Amino acid sequence: MSSVYEINKGINKPIEFRGLYGQYIAWLAGGLVVLLLLFVALYLLGAGLLVTLPLVFALGSGLVFTVFRLSKRFGVHGLSKFFAKRGLPDYVKFRSRRTFTGLKGIQGNSERQAP
């Protein structure tokens, strides 16, 4: 009796699920968990099903649409790069050169002792 094993030929390739890559799968899963908790909270608070279900379905479809759009726009690592680039300052102000004048002495001269 023989066993059938699949060989994983996707080494060094990102995880993909129905067109979603890597981190977008986690974003979608986290969003769906939040929607489930929202549904439970609204149901326990006594909101009617005619209010709760359409609200959760509308938010869920918006979530799926947004995550797929982000995945298509930015790709595998593009969203992380986008947030990293947004976090960079436009310019840097220096009021003193002291920071830079001390760098050469510390790196280049090992005999010099730090104050």
How does this structure look, described?
There is one protein chain. The chain has a two-stranded antiparallel sheet with strand order 1-2. The mean pLDDT is 81. By secondary structure, the chain is mostly helical. A hairpin with a 2-residue loop joins strand 1 (16-17) and strand 2 (20-21). The longest helix is centred in the middle third of the chain and has 26 residues, at 49-74. The chain is 60% helix and 3% strand.
Question: Topology, pairings included?
Answer:
Blueprint: E1 16-17, E2 20-21, H1 23-44, H2 49-74, H3 78-87, H4 98-108
Antiparallel strand pairs: 1-2
Helix pairs in contact: 1-2
Keywords: Membrane, Transmembrane, Transmembrane helix
Pfam families: DUF4133
Transmembrane segments: 21-45, 51-71
Produce a short descriptive summary.
The protein has about 120 residues and is mainly alpha-helical. About 60% of the residues lie in helices and about 5% in strands.
Task: Give the neighbour order of strands across the main sheet.
Answer: 1-2
In total, how many domains does the architecture comprise? 1
**Share of helix among residues?**
55-70%
Biggest sheet record: 2 strands, antiparallel
On the 0 to 100 scale, the average pLDDT is 81
Q: What general form does the structure show?
A: flat
Structure class? mainly alpha
Number of helices: 4
Strand content: under 5%
First-to-last CA distance: 76 Å
How many strands in all?
Answer: 2
Structural Rg = 26 Å
Transmembrane segments: 21-45, 51-71
InterPro entries: DUF4133
Keywords: Membrane, Transmembrane, Transmembrane helix
